[in-house]
Design brief:
single chain; 221 residues; alpha+beta; Jelly Rolls; Arc Repressor Mutant, subunit A; 2 domains; four-stranded antiparallel beta sheet; 6 helices; globular
Amino acid sequence: MRVTRKCFKELWLFEDLTEDENEECRAIGSRQLFHPGQAIFFQGDPAHDMFIIKAGRIKLNKVLEDGTEVILDFRKAGDMIGENMISEEIKYPVTAWSMEDTITCGFNKKRFETLISNNPSIGLRVIKNMGKRISALTHRLGNMASGNLMERLYQILSHIAQEHGKANAHEYVIEFPLTHDELGYLLGAHRVSITRAMKELTQSGKVVLANRTIMIPRVTS
Protein backbone atom coordinates (compact mmCIF):
# COMPACT_ATOMS: atom_id res chain seq x y z
CA MET A 1 0.00 0.00 0.00
CA ARG A 2 1.39 3.39 -1.03
CA VAL A 3 0.99 5.80 1.86
CA THR A 4 1.26 9.48 0.95
CA ARG A 5 3.32 11.76 3.17
CA LYS A 6 0.85 14.52 2.49
CA CYS A 7 -0.67 15.90 5.67
CA PHE A 8 -3.20 18.52 6.68
CA LYS A 9 -0.86 21.45 6.06
CA GLU A 10 -0.68 20.55 2.34
CA LEU A 11 -4.46 20.48 1.83
CA TRP A 12 -6.12 23.41 0.07
CA LEU A 13 -8.27 23.99 3.17
CA PHE A 14 -5.23 24.69 5.35
CA GLU A 15 -2.97 26.50 2.90
CA ASP A 16 -0.76 29.28 4.30
CA LEU A 17 -0.99 28.21 7.95
CA THR A 18 2.06 28.72 10.16
CA GLU A 19 4.06 25.76 11.47
CA ASP A 20 2.58 26.24 14.94
CA GLU A 21 -0.95 26.24 13.47
CA ASN A 22 -0.15 23.07 11.48
CA GLU A 23 1.00 21.37 14.67
CA GLU A 24 -2.35 22.28 16.28
CA CYS A 25 -4.18 20.61 13.36
CA ARG A 26 -2.06 17.45 13.53
CA ALA A 27 -2.65 17.10 17.25
CA ILE A 28 -6.39 16.47 16.81
CA GLY A 29 -6.06 13.81 14.06
CA SER A 30 -6.73 10.05 14.29
CA ARG A 31 -6.04 7.22 11.79
CA GLN A 32 -8.43 4.52 10.47
CA LEU A 33 -8.26 1.61 8.00
CA PHE A 34 -11.13 0.77 5.62
CA HIS A 35 -11.41 -2.30 3.35
CA PRO A 36 -12.83 -2.50 -0.23
CA GLY A 37 -16.59 -1.94 -0.28
CA GLN A 38 -16.65 -0.47 3.23
CA ALA A 39 -18.34 2.91 3.74
CA ILE A 40 -16.39 5.71 5.38
CA PHE A 41 -19.70 7.48 5.89
CA PHE A 42 -23.22 7.29 4.43
CA GLN A 43 -25.37 9.94 2.80
CA GLY A 44 -27.59 11.40 5.51
CA ASP A 45 -25.27 10.47 8.39
CA PRO A 46 -24.42 13.31 10.81
CA ALA A 47 -21.37 15.12 9.40
CA HIS A 48 -19.14 14.78 12.44
CA ASP A 49 -15.80 13.90 10.81
CA MET A 50 -13.46 15.08 8.05
CA PHE A 51 -10.69 12.92 6.56
CA ILE A 52 -7.51 13.13 4.52
CA ILE A 53 -6.84 9.96 2.48
CA LYS A 54 -3.38 8.69 3.38
CA ALA A 55 -3.54 5.60 1.11
CA GLY A 56 -6.09 3.95 -1.20
CA ARG A 57 -9.00 5.31 -3.22
CA ILE A 58 -12.57 6.39 -2.44
CA LYS A 59 -15.71 6.79 -4.57
CA LEU A 60 -18.33 9.41 -3.73
CA ASN A 61 -21.92 8.79 -4.80
CA LYS A 62 -25.36 10.22 -4.09
CA VAL A 63 -28.84 8.69 -4.24
CA LEU A 64 -31.45 11.09 -5.63
CA GLU A 65 -35.08 11.28 -4.50
CA ASP A 66 -36.21 9.02 -7.37
CA GLY A 67 -33.70 6.35 -6.31
CA THR A 68 -31.18 7.12 -9.04
CA GLU A 69 -27.56 6.64 -7.95
CA VAL A 70 -25.15 9.30 -9.18
CA ILE A 71 -21.37 8.94 -8.93
CA LEU A 72 -19.93 12.36 -8.20
CA ASP A 73 -16.18 11.90 -7.90
CA PHE A 74 -13.22 9.70 -7.06
CA ARG A 75 -10.66 10.65 -4.41
CA LYS A 76 -7.09 9.35 -4.08
CA ALA A 77 -4.27 9.43 -1.53
CA GLY A 78 -3.63 13.04 -0.56
CA ASP A 79 -7.23 14.18 -1.16
CA MET A 80 -9.80 15.14 1.47
CA ILE A 81 -13.40 14.04 2.06
CA GLY A 82 -16.12 15.18 4.45
CA GLU A 83 -15.06 18.82 4.30
CA ASN A 84 -18.71 19.91 4.52
CA MET A 85 -18.30 19.15 8.24
CA ILE A 86 -17.05 22.71 8.71
CA SER A 87 -20.10 24.33 7.13
CA GLU A 88 -23.66 24.63 8.43
CA GLU A 89 -24.46 21.31 6.71
CA ILE A 90 -25.13 18.82 9.52
CA LYS A 91 -25.45 15.69 7.34
CA TYR A 92 -23.19 14.20 4.70
CA PRO A 93 -24.70 14.91 1.26
CA VAL A 94 -22.97 11.85 -0.27
CA THR A 95 -21.76 8.35 0.59
CA ALA A 96 -18.02 7.63 0.57
CA TRP A 97 -17.06 4.05 -0.40
CA SER A 98 -13.59 2.56 -0.10
CA MET A 99 -12.58 1.12 -3.50
CA GLU A 100 -9.47 -0.62 -2.10
CA ASP A 101 -7.68 -0.89 1.23
CA THR A 102 -7.74 2.73 2.40
CA ILE A 103 -6.12 4.55 5.30
CA THR A 104 -7.54 7.86 6.46
CA CYS A 105 -6.45 10.45 8.98
CA GLY A 106 -9.23 12.67 10.27
CA PHE A 107 -10.67 14.71 13.06
CA ASN A 108 -14.17 15.31 14.35
CA LYS A 109 -16.25 18.47 14.40
CA LYS A 110 -16.07 19.10 18.15
CA ARG A 111 -12.27 18.97 18.14
CA PHE A 112 -12.14 21.21 15.08
CA GLU A 113 -14.49 23.78 16.63
CA THR A 114 -12.34 23.81 19.77
CA LEU A 115 -9.26 24.30 17.59
CA ILE A 116 -10.88 27.30 15.84
CA SER A 117 -12.04 28.79 19.15
CA ASN A 118 -8.48 28.65 20.46
CA ASN A 119 -6.92 29.79 17.17
CA PRO A 120 -9.16 32.34 15.35
CA SER A 121 -6.49 32.91 12.70
CA ILE A 122 -6.91 29.30 11.52
CA GLY A 123 -10.66 29.84 11.12
CA LEU A 124 -10.11 33.00 9.04
CA ARG A 125 -7.65 31.23 6.73
CA VAL A 126 -10.04 28.27 6.31
CA ILE A 127 -12.88 30.61 5.28
CA LYS A 128 -10.70 32.32 2.66
CA ASN A 129 -9.49 29.00 1.25
CA MET A 130 -13.06 27.70 1.00
CA GLY A 131 -13.99 30.76 -1.05
CA LYS A 132 -11.17 30.08 -3.52
CA ARG A 133 -12.17 26.41 -3.76
CA ILE A 134 -15.81 27.24 -4.54
CA SER A 135 -14.71 29.55 -7.37
CA ALA A 136 -12.48 26.83 -8.86
CA LEU A 137 -15.24 24.18 -8.68
CA THR A 138 -17.76 26.53 -10.29
CA HIS A 139 -15.36 27.05 -13.20
CA ARG A 140 -14.84 23.28 -13.56
CA LEU A 141 -18.58 22.57 -13.62
CA GLY A 142 -19.10 25.23 -16.26
CA ASN A 143 -16.51 23.59 -18.51
CA MET A 144 -18.02 20.12 -18.04
CA ALA A 145 -21.51 21.34 -18.94
CA SER A 146 -20.41 22.71 -22.31
CA GLY A 147 -19.84 20.78 -25.53
CA ASN A 148 -21.29 17.53 -26.85
CA LEU A 149 -21.23 14.23 -24.96
CA MET A 150 -18.03 12.99 -26.60
CA GLU A 151 -16.17 16.16 -25.58
CA ARG A 152 -17.59 16.02 -22.04
CA LEU A 153 -16.66 12.32 -21.74
CA TYR A 154 -13.12 13.10 -22.88
CA GLN A 155 -12.87 15.93 -20.33
CA ILE A 156 -13.98 13.73 -17.43
CA LEU A 157 -11.74 10.82 -18.49
CA SER A 158 -8.78 13.18 -18.82
CA HIS A 159 -9.50 14.60 -15.37
CA ILE A 160 -9.75 11.13 -13.77
CA ALA A 161 -6.62 9.94 -15.58
CA GLN A 162 -4.51 12.91 -14.53
CA GLU A 163 -5.83 13.01 -10.95
CA HIS A 164 -6.06 9.28 -10.22
CA GLY A 165 -4.17 7.44 -12.96
CA LYS A 166 -0.56 6.47 -13.55
CA ALA A 167 1.49 8.69 -15.84
CA ASN A 168 4.18 7.48 -18.21
CA ALA A 169 6.04 9.10 -21.09
CA HIS A 170 3.21 8.70 -23.60
CA GLU A 171 -0.09 8.47 -21.73
CA TYR A 172 -2.11 8.51 -18.53
CA VAL A 173 -3.45 5.10 -17.45
CA ILE A 174 -6.61 4.63 -15.36
CA GLU A 175 -5.72 1.49 -13.42
CA PHE A 176 -9.12 0.85 -11.81
CA PRO A 177 -12.22 -0.28 -13.76
CA LEU A 178 -14.79 2.28 -14.87
CA THR A 179 -18.05 0.92 -16.26
CA HIS A 180 -20.15 2.75 -18.81
CA ASP A 181 -22.91 2.92 -16.19
CA GLU A 182 -20.57 4.72 -13.79
CA LEU A 183 -19.45 7.15 -16.49
CA GLY A 184 -23.11 7.73 -17.33
CA TYR A 185 -23.82 8.66 -13.70
CA LEU A 186 -20.90 11.10 -13.73
CA LEU A 187 -22.11 12.81 -16.90
CA GLY A 188 -25.86 12.43 -16.53
CA ALA A 189 -26.13 10.32 -19.70
CA HIS A 190 -27.48 6.88 -20.63
CA ARG A 191 -25.09 3.92 -20.87
CA VAL A 192 -25.85 3.46 -24.57
CA SER A 193 -24.87 7.08 -25.24
CA ILE A 194 -21.64 6.61 -23.27
CA THR A 195 -20.82 3.48 -25.29
CA ARG A 196 -21.34 5.42 -28.53
CA ALA A 197 -19.24 8.37 -27.35
CA MET A 198 -16.47 6.03 -26.13
CA LYS A 199 -16.38 4.36 -29.54
CA GLU A 200 -15.97 7.76 -31.19
CA LEU A 201 -13.13 8.63 -28.82
CA THR A 202 -11.28 5.37 -29.49
CA GLN A 203 -11.72 5.75 -33.25
CA SER A 204 -10.29 9.27 -33.06
CA GLY A 205 -7.32 8.07 -31.02
CA LYS A 206 -8.09 10.32 -28.04
CA VAL A 207 -8.73 7.25 -25.86
CA VAL A 208 -7.09 3.81 -26.01
CA LEU A 209 -8.78 0.72 -24.50
CA ALA A 210 -6.87 -2.46 -23.65
CA ASN A 211 -8.23 -5.25 -21.41
CA ARG A 212 -10.72 -2.89 -19.69
CA THR A 213 -7.89 -0.41 -19.02
CA ILE A 214 -8.44 3.15 -20.20
CA MET A 215 -5.44 5.13 -21.48
CA ILE A 216 -5.40 8.80 -22.41
CA PRO A 217 -2.51 9.71 -24.73
CA ARG A 218 -0.60 12.82 -23.71
CA VAL A 219 -1.32 15.84 -25.87
CA THR A 220 1.88 17.15 -27.44
CA SER A 221 2.21 20.69 -28.68
